[in-house]
Amino acid sequence: MNKLSKKWQERLELLDIAFQPILNMHTGKIYAVEALLRNFRDVGFRSIFELFDTVYNEHILYAFDIALREKTFEKFTTIPNYEDMKLFYNLDNRLFEMADFQTGNTNKILKQLGIKKENICFEISERHEISNNSSIEKVLSHYRDENFCIAIDDFGTGYSGYKLLFDSTPNIIKIDRYFLQDIDKSMKKQLMLRSIANLAIQLGIQVIAEGVETKSELLTCKEIGCHLVQGYLVQHPTKRASEIQKEYAHIQHILNSSKRSNSNKSNIETHIQIIDPLFKKQTMSEVVAYFKKHKNREIVPVLNNKNEPIGIFFENQIREYIYSPYGISLLNNDTSTKSKLKNFIDPCPHIDINSDINTIIELFSNNPESIGIIITTNSQYYGFLSARAIISIMNEENLIVARDQNPLTKLPGNRMIQKYIADIEQSDNSYVLCYFDLDNFKAFNDVYGFRNGDRVIQLFADIMRKNLPSDFFKAHIGGDDFFIANKIINNSKMCLESIQQVISIFIQNVQEYYNDEDKERGYIVSKNREEVVQQFPLLTVSASIVVTNQNRQRNKFSNVLNEILALQKKVAKTNPDHLAISSIL
Asked: Which of 276, 356, 402, 541 lies at a 20 to 30 A Cα distance from 396?
């Protein structure tokens, strides 16, 4: 290996390492730290990229990286409780182009410092993929074969992101900040992240939301299904190892204040199967012994030494070997590929126990061949949710929805409305909420009968379904009263336009439910609530709208919402446009 010159040794002395924490998205507890190079300007470079390009051009990239690796690993051991976290170390994927590249040096450093291999995660970027002769697949394969954790940095911005997932299957991907910035305000970004996250999770890959800077970004990424979070919202990179915490109270406060009821978690827990796992380093003779002990077991989660799931093992893969002397001999032969458990592991999605049930159902539904999902707690194995169990959960959820549905319109009823409002109360997002009331409905019902009254109610429900975007929450309070709500992505204008469109379409279409005489004169004659005969205009609908402010006082929200909606309903009925709008600050 090329020795570093005195000049580069002195530069290495001046360089320093900062650490930035990576947290579990559901618990706010530390999962890892990323090592970031600092003081590069002090040694004459404008950027980290310029520094590494220089050592590459001087053909000392590998020698420099090994020296920097040792310096970084050593500082990592000064972090309190470093044994319980991973270190993400960035690799330049041009290392293999160096003539002095050789294997085994990382293991020597780890042994010297007393660090376990499971604590290291090599982070690789696609920055140099189309230049020179570098091959990211070679780097991935090399370190994966060495049993190191592998992460792909800046996923989605490179040249072969999805190809890498298919060919190399890293352990972790980091979603670039580009996709996460203001994601709470961009439905397009949410759809893209959901697509990436779902694919990665199906392949058993953990997803890090990198560069998260706001509460809303954090909660949106959590809702979509990301496992881990990194960014300025958590902590800026720090050169002081003592500033890395075991858990981050301000993140836990955000997560706890936004949590829905624990019914989701309880419902999942009742279906979780606690299966004794296998470990990646176990011998095949131990695997054979396991299945002889558990004769009816068909699948087993496989973990690394830190109890993190890495996949699943199917008993039928070795069934033919178990029952023949030759097969047993082959499994026990250290030189055979069949003797390594890692060669039998299949990917399996894994997700935190605190995840929303809908996220679990969506993951399962997107893969018709899925045998189930591994459930984790704080990134460690907890149990297994089989396909049969998930189908049971889906059926239970459907029964709950069916019980709460209005029998006439099949829209969610009051219980779901209350739950939705409770979730809004805990959210930092802004929302538009709207209460619809059909005007002059009693008079129509009295004159045209209950059957036609039901048809008008169904008409309005159908107009809401067809003309409000799918992300709107649509519900039927009862009778001629309806409720809708939606999170404001960019501004409330689009929501208000959708509401106005519903009003306009209903007023136009409902006239077909009157006879020609009533339509022509524009009113019907009926008795009012005091039994006095009077003229009633044709059916219209009024909308009482409340826009919630992002920085509202939560403890006042539910107390005033119903009161505001009720007061505004009277105002809306007298307005030409049938609208009344206010805002909760």
From this structure: 276
Please, which residues have CB within 8 angstroms of residue 499's CB and are 6 or more apart in sequence? 432, 434, 484, 543, 545, 579
Residue 15 has what DSSP assignment?
Answer: -
CB 438 within 8 A of CB 461: no
Neighbours of 147 (CB within 10 A): 14
DSSP letter assigned to residue 412: B
Q: Which residues pair with 314 in a beta bridge?
A: 299
State the DSSP string of 243-269. G--SB-HHHHHHHHHH---THHHHHHH
- Coil, helix or strand for 301? strand
Q: Which domains does the chain have, with CATH numbers?
A: 12-257 (3.20.20.450), 269-394 (3.10.580.10), 405-584 (3.30.70.270)
Report the alpha-carbon angle 356-393-471, nearest 5: 45
Mean pLDDT is highest, among 225-239, 365-379, 565-579, for: 225-239
For 438, the enclosing helix (H) or strand (E) is strand 431-439
Q: Per-residue pLDDT averaged across 37-62, rounded?
A: 93
Considering only CA atoms, which of 179, 268, 247 is closest in space to residue 26? Answer: 247
Residue at token pair 């008409």: 459
Looking at residue 333, its amino acid is N
Amino acid at site 316 = N
Say if residues 363 and 201 touch (Cβ distance below 8 Å): yes
Q: Collapse the DSSP code of 286 into the 3-class scheme (helix H, G, I; strand E, B; otherwise coil) and give the result.
A: helix
Q: Which residue has the tokens 């709107």?
A: 472
**Other C-beta atoms lying within 10 Å of the C-beta of residue 111:** 10
DSSP-assigned beta bridge partners for residue 541: 438
Phi, psi of 139 (to 5 degrees): -65, -45
**pLDDT of 239 above 90:** yes
Look up residue 158 and give its DSSP letter: S
Tokens for 220?
A: 């949106």
SS3 352: strand
State how far the Cα of 550 lies from the Cα of 488, in Å rounded to an integer: 10
Any idea what the Cα angle at residue 108 is, between residues 35 and 311, rounded to 5°? 65
In total, the chain counts a number of residues equal to 585
DSSP bridge pairs for 36: 18
- pLDDT greater at residue 74 or residue 128: 74
Quick check: helix, strand or coil at residue 374?
strand
- Identify which of 170, 195, 168 has the alpha carbon closest to the alpha carbon of residue 366: 195
Exposure string (b/e) for 302-329, b if CB count within 10 Å is 16 or more? bbbebebbbbbbebeebeebeeeeebbe
- The Cα–Cα gap between 560 and 579 comes to 19
Strands 350-352 and 372-377: parallel
Q: What is the structure's pLDDT at 573?
A: 87
Q: How far apart are CA 170 and CA 179, in angstroms?
A: 20
For residue 425, how many other CB atoms are within 10 A of its CB? 15
505 residue type, one letter: I
Q: Does residue 348 contact residue 301 with C-beta atoms inside 8 Å?
A: yes
Per-residue pLDDT, 490: 64
CA gap 374, 372 in Å, rounded: 7
Answer whether residue 338 shows pLDDT above 70.
no
CA distance 476 to 385: 34
